Amino acid sequence: MKQTGKALIVFFSHAGENYAVGNITVGNTKVVADYIKELTGADQFEVEAEKSYDMPYRDLIKVAQEEQRKGEKPAFKGSVNIDEYDTIFVGTPIWWGTFPQVMFTFFDKYDLNGKTIIPFTTHEGSGLGSTVNDLKKLYPNAKFEKALAVKGTDARSSKDRVEKWLKEVGF
């Protein structure tokens, strides 16, 4: 199906020390989001937490697990006019099986019901985790297209794969 209307890529990405790829200046999810932007012309909104996640990987996983356990919703910087968009790509690394908690803060603020949602993740073995099911629970009146999961170690060489997926979902 050919997508119509304006598209937005909403994503969270983590640069710095990452599992399996080492210390990176551009996060894996941003790499994939940038490919989507380049190939579709969609706008981007990067969900940037107000708190810093710039720490060694072992510390980060403890923080991420604790945020999830406590149901914390860290604040993020900036805003976007979601009403301008018909299609929303939602991108995330997988942290403890799902979105980083800061993404749930975004979801609390913005209603994506009535939109077409196209999820994508970067991971090191978790695939999509529970992200698609989590989004379907949050936005029961949204339309969902096929999601894409890219291993973080493959993100920088995934442009052809992203392009093939975009064609499958109508871009």
Describe this structure as you would to a colleague.
This protein is α/β, with parallel strands linked by helices and 171 residues long. It has a single domain, classed as Rossmann fold (3-Layer(aba) Sandwich), CATH 3.40.50. The protein is built from 5 helices and 10 strands. It has helices at residues 28-40, 57-70, 101-109, 131-138, 159-168, and strands at residues 7-11, 16-18, 22-24, 43-46, 48-49, 76-77, 87-93, 116-123, 143-144, 148-151. Strands 1, 4, 7, 8, 9 and 10 form a 6-stranded parallel β-sheet that branches. The chain is globular, with a radius of gyration of 15 Å. The mean pLDDT is 95.
List the uncertain runs: none
Distinct helical segment count: 5
For the record, what is the CATH homologous superfamily label? Flavodoxin domain
Shape: globular
- Give me the secondary-structure category: alpha/beta
Judging by the overall fold, what is the CATH architecture? 3-Layer(aba) Sandwich
Main beta sheet: 6 strands, parallel
Which CATH class is shown? Answer: Alpha Beta
Number of extended strands = 10
> How many domains make up the coordinates?
1
The SSE order reads: EEEHEEHEEHEHEEH
CATH topology value: Rossmann fold
What's the rounded overall pLDDT mean? Answer: 95
Helix content: 25-40%
What portion of residues belong to β-strands? 15-25%
What gyration radius follows from the Cα positions, in whole Å?
15 Å
Ends apart, CA distance between termini:
8 Å
